[in-house]
Amino acid sequence: MRQVMLFTYRNAYLSGYFSDRDYSLLQYPLPLSLSRKDEIDISCDRGYVVAEVNDLNIKDISGILGKLSQSRKVICIAESVSETLKEILLDRGIIDLIGTRYAARIPDYIDSIEDRDPAKLGRILILEDHKATEKILNEIINRFDYEAIFIDSIEYLSESINKNNIQMILLNLGMEDLNLVKLISMYNSHRRMRDLPVISYKDMDKGIFVHEIISGLNRLTKVILSKEELFSFLVDILFRKKVIPAVEKINSSMKYNETSFFREETLSKLYYNRSEFLFSMTNILSDENIEIILKALKDMEKDFIKIDGLRWLIIDKSRDPSNQCNG
Predict the structure, then answer these.
(1) Is a pLDDT exceeding 80 seen at residue 210?
(2) CA dist., res. 224 & res. 200, Å (int)
(3) What domains are there in the chain, each with its CATH number?
C-alpha cells in the first residue's frame, strides 16, 4: 500500500480523493504546530507528500519539504506560483506542482509518474555538479522515458558520449573550474560530439562573462539559457516528442490528410461536391484501425496526465532566450 503524507489546509476534504485508492494517509493539517513538526517521520524511504504551498507558508515548511523530498516524491498544490515560490521550490529540487482547482487529479497523477521506462528513447548527457539541479533534470528527463547521464568534469565527456546512446548534451557553464578553451577544443576534435545538439545554460544571477562570448562558444551552442529556461525547454520538447507520434497514428488511421475537409463543409456541400469520393472512401472503422486509435488515445491520456505537474515550469515562448550565441 502506498503512503501519502498530506500537508494542506483542507486535509479532510482532499483525503476523499484517495479514499477508493490503494493509499494509506498520514495527515498533518496546516499551519503546522511545533509539536506536529516533531511528529513528522522523515526516515521513511518511500511514498508521497502532497503539500499546499503559498507565499505565506513556504518559508515555514520548505525545510521540511526539502528533507522529505530526499526520500519521497513531493507534489505541491497552489492557487498561483510567484517568482518567490518558484525559486524556493526549485532550490529544494521540487518540480511537481498542480493547481489547487485540479487537486482531484493527484491520485491519477501519481499513477502516471510511476509508469516510466528510462532510456527507452535514449540518453541525455549532462555536465552538472549541483545536486538540486541534477535532481530536477533527472526527474524531467526520466518522466518522458529518457535517461539522464551526469558527469561532473569535461574529462569524462568524450568517454561518456562514446559509451552511451546519447541524443543531446547539456552543459552548465556555471560550474567551477570549467575550462572553456579545453571544452571548445574537445568539441572541434570530436566528430560524434559535433553531430549532437549541445545546450548550454547557467545561473543568470552570475551574468554572462566576456570570456564565454569570445571563447568560440558560439560554434558549440546556439544559446545560453537560464536554468528556468532549460527546464521549460526540456518539458516542452520531450512532451511533444512523446505525444506527437500518438497524434500521427490517429491522423493516419483516420485518413485525416485526405478527409480534413469534413471539418468545414456542410453535408450538402460534401454530397454535391465530393459524391464520387464519398462512395469510395477507405473504411476507418476496421478492427485494426479502432485498436490503433484507442491505444493512441490511451497513450496520449497518460502523457497529458503525466505532464500536469510540470506545466508550471513552462515559460511563455514569446520571450526570447536569455542570450543568443550567434556571433
Answers:
(1) no
(2) 5
(3) 2-114 (3.40.50.2300), 123-231 (3.40.50.2300), 241-313 (no CATH)
